[in-house]
Specification:
By secondary structure, the protein is of the alpha/beta class. The protein has one domain: Aldolase class I (TIM Barrel). Helices cover 44% and strands 16% of the residues. The protein contains eleven helices and eight strands. The protein has an eight-stranded parallel barrel with strand order 1-2-3-4-5-6-7-8, surrounded by four helices. It starts with a strand and ends with a helix. The relative contact order is 0.16. The chain binds 2-phosphoglycolic acid.
Amino acid sequence: MRRLLIAGNWKMHKGVAETTSFLESLLAEDLPPAVDVVCCPPFASLPAAAMMLAGAEVGLGAQNVHWEASGAFTGEVAAPMLAELGVGWVIVGHSERRTLFGETDATAVARARAAQAAGLEVIYCVGETLAERDQGATFAVLERQTSGLAELDPRRLALAYEPVWAIGTGRNASPEQAEEAHAFLRVRLAGAFGGGAAEGLRILYGGSLKPANARQLLALPDVDGGLIGGASLDLRSFSDIIRAAAARAAGVDS
Ligand code: PGA
């Protein structure tokens, strides 16, 4: 059984003071051991978060990483720098990076490779826009976005299916839409790494995941956790989602 992973993508929210008080409260929660929990604060808050999470059960992730280990890349952050800080995870290829900052499939794969080479676990994001879904192009888009997966190390990889139309809109994918996309991605993983490896890899759902829909979405057979934006910023809603994941894990295990 795949362990569920609940990752909070804080985007450009929470400076050092807010990060510190949020993580203090999160660590004081009685978090269920059956679920992997990761928080991804902005770069500026990572050193403070790393100090607080050293030795803790909650993992620490960054939201982006450069593909070179060092060099003249003003404004960028390299994977070995993140690893040195104690960061264990990184989100790569998020749709906001793709649409607002020119991320392509090729650069996303390059970033993911660099991250893995530095020992980081990668959460690799894919997902179609509303126009692409309306044109019936969802699977073609997912196919294109996953075409470089075979270059990655499956031992340090999770996928996140995030339909762009569901991100920050309050409109989540239906269980049928999510399961269909996740099952398709599982087949793509099998093509890249073989069926056995694909069965062990986690595919997270992202896009308006919140306490009200967490149980339903996390119950789907090919949904192995969530990448959560807005609802990860609030301690109550984030821990409610973690508990929904734990309930699923307990249900499946029993
Ligand atoms: P959302 O964001 O939960 O606010 O929709 C998800 C994401 O962008 O990862």
